[in-house]
Amino acid sequence: MIQGRKLLEQGLIQLNIQFTDKQIEQFMKYYDLLIEKNKVMNLTTITDLNEVMTKHFLDSVLISNVLDMSDFYTLVDVGTGAGFPGIPIKILFPHLKVTLIDSLNKRLKFLDDVISELELDGIETVHGRAEDLGNNDLYREKYDLCVSRAVANLSTLSEYCIPFIKKDGVFASYKASDSEEEINNSKNAIKILGGSISKVCEIALPGTEVKRNIVIIKKDKCTSKKYPRKAGTPSKEPL
């Protein structure tokens, strides 16, 4: 555990992210809860301590090298799964009011336990599909920042995510380094949804040769009421 802790601390230093001992303890506890629950529920295929520290925790907070997190107050994580990137971001930037969205309720029950055990305030879980919640006035165009590491084509993902963002807000999509064609092909969909790509930042994962693209999409105008389309349509028929 000491080696994993050091790896995390060194990675955060490399990313110029300030942290406290309490925050590191929260990450270590998160790891323990994740591995224990993973024995009975499929949350992650990555279970090695060092790999979780790098490929889940540090990867989740790469965004802070692209955006000034103090510019944002409300954040929604769409398709959060085991809590990535939303919970690591919340741990390090506790001022954020965070909503974690997932379509599988049992994953959210696990995340509720994590939130309780880590004593995180100002964070909630919401069960539902992005297509349905994106049309719900409680969530539609209510967030400064939307993040997603969900494995979906960016055109599809944009239809899930952009409706949640306020005008002038930001959607940050975590993508692989070889996603240039996918990003280019998504520009029309993003425009239809009221956004535009402001920048694509390639960042190396600390301690590895792995590179990650973070696509920053700015919301220029409100999304048409036509979007998101009904559940299942964005994935079957991307814009």
TrEMBL record:
Gene3D superfamilies: Vaccinia Virus protein VP39 (3.40.50.150). Its EC number is 2.1.1.-. Keywords: Cytoplasm, Methyltransferase, rRNA processing, S-adenosyl-L-methionine, Transferase. Its main location: cytoplasm. It is an enzyme of class 2 (transferase). Transmembrane segments: none annotated. InterPro entries: rRNA_ssu_MeTfrase_G (IPR003682), SAM-dependent_MTases_sf (IPR029063). S-adenosyl-L-methionine binds at residues 79, 84, 130-131, 149. It is found in: Cytoplasm. Belongs to the methyltransferase superfamily. RNA methyltransferase RsmG family. NCBIfam families: rsmG_gidB (TIGR00138). Specifically methylates the N7 position of a guanine in 16S rRNA. HAMAP family: 16SrRNA_methyltr_G (MF_00074). This is Ribosomal RNA small subunit methyltransferase G. The gene is rsmG.
